[in-house]
Amino acid sequence: MASGSCFQEDFPRYNVSVEDVTEAGFGADIGMEKFFNIKCRASGLRPNVVVLVATVRALKMHGGGPNVSAGAPLPKEYTDENLSLVAGGCRSNLKKQIQIAHLFGVPVVVALNVFRTDTQAEIDLVCQIAKECGASDAVPCHHWSQGGRGSLELAKAVKEAAHTPTNFQFLYNTEMPILEKIRTIAQKVYGAEDIELSPEARSKIDYYNQQGYESLPICMAKTHLSLSHMPDKKGAPTRFVLPIRDVRASVGAGFIYPLVGT
């Protein structure tokens, strides 16, 4: 963290050289995977640490909590303490997100955004299970209520993790066939058993091969609501086949983008 006028004088100073901090968005399965496999490949950037942001409420949903409707009051499961739902979400979705980051050889710090309704037992449980699942550290973050002071522990944890040895690697070689690159992402990142291509998708892949685009990286277009293509499937779905309904190319931008499901 760089010191500046926004920091009060009693804040500790951290002299950390930061080359780049990126908010990749939409989880390790979408934003991070694309950042690593596309942007890092093109730019030469090499990540030192992944900060995986989580909330108790989201983990409860992934642990089997009821659906949430816009405009309707939150079900009591999300406002009352429920350690069973928290544990279920941590041992499924959070664990899988950590594993995805580790596929690339990068350490993970879990940043738990703390809300007013979260209990101390729930916060402690998330941090405990996150570290059991392989996170280098897991830190409650109180910036919502305390401003920058509420994220000092996160800064310390990120600094420490960023100085540990890494073994960053891409998920696939771009010289792999387009079909195999898509299958690799589907199986290793999403947890699918296999992929299923529509006739149109197969035809497009054949065309791109003929045009010499087969070495472009892959930018999957998929729902952010699930690790799978099914928005209502929370946690860490398995035993599903990922449907690819179309495959398109952004040649100028430099990637192939399959359309997953609807």
Summarize the structure.
This protein is of the alpha/beta class.
Give a verbal description of the structure.
With 262 residues, the chain is α/β, with parallel strands linked by helices. The protein is built from 9 helices and 6 strands, in the order αβαααβαβαααβαββ. It has helices at residues 28-43, 56-62, 76-79, 83-103, 120-132, 143-146, 152-162, 178-190, 199-210, and strands at residues 50-55, 108-113, 137-141, 194-197, 241-250, 255-260. The protein has a 3-stranded parallel β-sheet with strand order 1-2-3, with helices on both faces. A 3-stranded mixed β-sheet has the order 4-5-6. Strand 5 (241-250) and strand 6 (255-260) form a beta hairpin. The relative contact order is 0.14. The model is unreliable at 1-17 (pLDDT under 50). Pfam families: FTHFS. Keywords: ATP-binding, Ligase, Nucleotide-binding, One-carbon metabolism. This is formate--tetrahydrofolate ligase. Its EC number is 6.3.4.3.
Please specify the SSE layout and strand pairing.
Blueprint: H1 28-43, E1 50-55, H2 56-62, H3 76-79, H4 83-103, E2 108-113, H5 120-132, E3 137-141, H6 143-146, H7 152-162, H8 178-190, E4 194-197, H9 199-210, E5 241-250, E6 255-260
Parallel strand pairs: 1-2, 2-3, 4-5
Antiparallel strand pairs: 5-6
Task: Give keywords.
alpha/beta; nucleotide-binding; one-carbon metabolism; ligase; 39% helix; formate--tetrahydrofolate ligase; Formate_THF_ligase_CS; 3-stranded mixed sheet; 262 residues; disordered N terminus
Parts with pLDDT < 50 across at least 5 consecutive residues: 1-17
- Count helical runs: 9
Which radius of gyration do the C-alpha atoms yield? 20 Å
Strand order of the largest sheet: 1-2-3
Mean pLDDT metric: 91
How far apart the termini lie comes to: 42 Å
Major sheet summary line:
3 strands, parallel
Percent range for helical residues? Answer: 25-40%
Structural class: alpha/beta
Portion in beta strands: 5-15%
